[in-house]
Design brief:
MetI-like fold; 337 residues; cell membrane; 72% helix; transmembrane; 1% strand; BPD_transp_1_N; transport; mainly alpha; 2 strands
């Protein structure tokens, strides 16, 4: 077990290293001056020339990547904060610290002052949605799987497919029309600020509802298929013939084995809920991570885009690691192997 964890941690670090190089290389090799992309479109040519010299932007790619990685890990001081550059970029954490993603030209702040605040907002949204998606999907999937081909299965399947087929922006518009315009009981925007007269919890209702409506049907269908397959196994028939109650058969034998396959699907929803909720955040003006990434990409804020991409990769790696641990917990054969 310990050796497995060590191997996985080493692989995670290597994956992050490779991902960081790819992100840096793509950012550096896109058309345009490195200094211009770092400073933004409104910087003067004098500032661009100063930063080009300070960054030594004409050096080979691997050397520039090494310096960028050194600043990111806190080994090297951030050249953007050098007083001699005249750029007046300052970070309250200092010029050298671990996790220095640079300066955001869009928000006029250090990237760390922007990205973690937005990521926290998205984590709240994702956590609430995930807490509703998991039990709802399990209940719907199990009921459909136990009543395969029956009226309940057909009804739940139609509901799941219909909700999953409706795009996020469409369900958002429907909910806003119903609960903001026709029946004004909820706010139409979610700025996470109670100064507008609406409490923060009330601002989260519609965005969370959109994510749950869009996502739970897909997960429920996966659980349904797995449940049907498990209920046809010989050990389930043996448990029934031994006189076990339906509750004992389902919760003691079927459900745990049926969740092995959909476990990956559930964890993939975390990646979607962190980085794939751009549409929902735009519809409700929610100050989240996905919206920040879109705005930074459109503006050309290269430092914020690099940081957000690395955070997204890190979330994917961590969820994959949690998936491995989950498989080991659900399936003793994998744990023993």
């Amino acid at each position: 077990m310990v050796s497995f964890l060590i191997r996985r941690l080493i692989m995670m670090l290597l994956t992050m290293l490779v991902a960081s190089f790819v992100v840096f290389a793509v950012s550096e090799l896109t058309p345009g001056s490195v200094a211009r992309k770092s400073l933004g479109p409104f910087a003067t040519q004098q500032q661009v020339d100063i930063l080009t010299e300070r960054l030594k932007a004409n050096d080979p790619l691997l050397i520039r990547y090494g310096r960028w990685l050194g600043v990111l890990t806190g080994v090297l001081a951030d050249p953007l904060q050098d007083p001699a550059s005249g750029l007046n970029f300052t970070d309250p954490r200092g010029r050298r610290y671990f996790g220095n993603f640079g300066y955001s030209t869009l928000y006029k702040l250090p990237v760390n002052d922007v990205i973690w605040d937005r990521l926290g907002h998205t984590a709240i949204l994702a956590g609430l949605a995930f807490a509703l998606i998991v039990p709802l999907s399990i209940v719907v999937g199990v009921l459909s799987g136990l009543k395969e081909g029956g009226a309940l299965d057909r009804i739940l399947s139609v509901v799941s497919i219909t909700f999953t087929s409706v795009p996020e922006f469409a369900s958002g518009v429907f909910l806003v029309t119903g609960f903001v315009i026709l029946w004004p009981v909820l706010p139409g925007t979610s700025p996470m600020d109670a100064s507008g007269g609406w409490s923060v919890p009330s601002q989260l209702v519609l965005p969370v509802a959109v994510l749950v409506i869009y996502d739970f049907g897909y997960v429920a269908r996966m659980i349904r298929v797995s449940m049907i397959e498990v209920m046809e196994k010989p050990y389930i028939r043996t448990a029934i013939l031994k006189g076990l109650s339906p509750r004992q058969v389902i919760f003691g034998h079927a459900l745990r084995n049926a969740m092995i396959a959909p476990f990956t699907v559930l964890l993939l929803q975390l990646n979607f809920l962190i980085s794939g909720v751009v549409v929902t955040e735009l519809v409700f003006a929610y100050p989240g991570f996905g919206r920040m990434l879109l705005e930074a990409s459109l503006f050309g804020d290269i430092s914020t885009v690099e940081a957000a991409t690395l955070v997204t990769v890190a979330v994917a790696i961590v969820t994959q690691f949690l998936g491995d641990l989950g498989y080991m917990a659900l399936n003793p054969r994998i744990r023993v192997a």
